[in-house]
Amino acid sequence: MIEQSPLEINTWGYSTINFFAPMSRYASAGGGPIKASREFKEMVKALHGVGIEVILDVVYNHTNEADDENPYTTSLRGIDNKVYYMVDLNNGGQLLNFSGCGNTLNCNHPMVMELILDSLRHWVVEYHVDGFRFDLASVLCRGTDGSPLDAPPIIRAIAKDDVLSRCKIIAEPWDCGGLYLVGRFPNWDRWAEWNGKYRDDLRRFIKGDPGTKGTFATRIAGSSDLYKVNKRKPYHSVNFVTAHDGFTLYDLVSYNSKHNDANGEGGKDGSNDNFSWNCGFEGETADAKIKGLRSRQMKNFHLALMCSQGTPMMLMGDEYGHTRYGNNNSYGLDTDINHFLWGKLDTRKRDHFRFFKEVIKFRCIHHVFRRENFLNKKDMTWHEDNWDNFESKFLAFTLHANNGGDVYMAFNAHDFFVKVAIPSPPANRHWFRVVDTNLESPKDFVSEGVPGIESTYNVAPYSSILLEAKI
């Protein structure tokens, strides 16, 4: 038996051989394919038993069969290369590479469409998954010659399929060939999207980039500029700050640059456009002031995410501050870089984890953050007369509840205190402070609220507050 190094393993499973089975290596104790299949079904059943749906990340944009320079024929290339892959017929049938992985599945060819649809139905019928997230879904919007299609047959077929009709379908609306479709992904009013503009705009505002307040406001209000069209709803925007690829939340506030040497690609892999800020020092530090600022920034990101209109998505491990030490493309590392560290979670349960958990709970019980339709003037008031000030990095607003339980929020991305006038609460109500990210745990989140809020509030640098109107 030849021992593999971590770099010879695609830990994420993004190098597909078979679209109808879970990776056998995911079985416990090296149990093999049958055990992997059975354990996957048991996992889905257990999650359903506690009210958790399962969304499967699927990669129909490329396979493991590599490129023309290093061909690795295991299946489709040997059956019919020109049918299953996009090729350049004007260049000797060379493979087109819109996936960044050497080949591109020819998704809108009738035979490949049938393969994809059969695979999706199999995961629903046999494994009972509740939906799918499509990696580099813009590949599925290309014709057989690689050109973009306005109405891709495979996208429509997935949206209209009887078996898939109950499933959630989510697109990562870009690919490695530059087809960026955020807000423009062909959708038939069914497809949701990873909102990449939400990620970028939140990162830039929270870290204090000038000129970003307006776009930050648009994103937390539901990105109506992108999704208020036809019958689309705010929930079609999947809002996120971090994902499996890219920085973790801890690394987002700890590194200015990627540190990918461990990947064995000379640091050339991974995105260079991270919109991150290390808060004054690159990487690990014992400086209490920097560590405190990083903690505030992580809480600011989480509060903004959970209080935005749309569907929030967070990265596993961010709830305890998982670090990959600046690696933003850890696909090949089967180590603690990618493992969930339960011991680390235990050490953070009373502070960082507690804050994250309580904010999620607060979102779940307050309808003002989960509007079915896009916000109108009755739903929200902006406390802002400084929209055109490029240097302004402070934003405050009130979300109005039908029962009078309004929520006031303010985000300060300046490096100085901002003394803000607090609007009057609804009749017969008073403001209670629920969140102030500048405070230490457990004062940073008080579920019942802290009374005594006066007509002004001094919002600390790089911090955010949430007030609730209560009787």
Based on CA atoms alone, the radius of gyration comes out at 24 Å
* Low-confidence residue ranges: 1-6
Count all strands and give the number. Answer: 16
Helix percent reads 10-25%
Shape: globular
* Main pleated sheet: 6 strands, parallel
Per DSSP, the total helix count is 11
Based on secondary structure, the structural category is alpha/beta
How do the helices and strands follow one another from N- to C-terminus?
HEHEEHEHEEHHHEHHEHHEEEEEEEE
Strand content: 5-15%
- End-to-end Cα distance: 69 Å
Q: What's the overall average pLDDT, rounded? A: 95
Q: Going across the major beta sheet, what is the strand order?
A: 1-4-5-6-7-8
Structure description:
By secondary structure, this protein is an alpha/beta fold. The chain is built from eleven helices and 16 strands. It has helices at 33-49, 76-84, 110-125, 153-160, 196-206, 213-220, 224-227, 249-252, 288-306, 342-348, 352-365, and strands at residues 55-58, 87-88, 94-95, 131-134, 168-171, 192-194, 237-240, 311-313, 380-382, 394-399, 407-412, 418-421, 430-436, 445-450, 456-459, 463-470. Strands 1-4-5-6-7-8 form a six-stranded parallel β-sheet. Helix 5 packs across helix 6 and helix 9 (288-306) runs parallel beside helix 11. The longest helix is centred in the middle third of the chain and has 19 residues, at 288-306. The chain is globular. The termini are far apart.
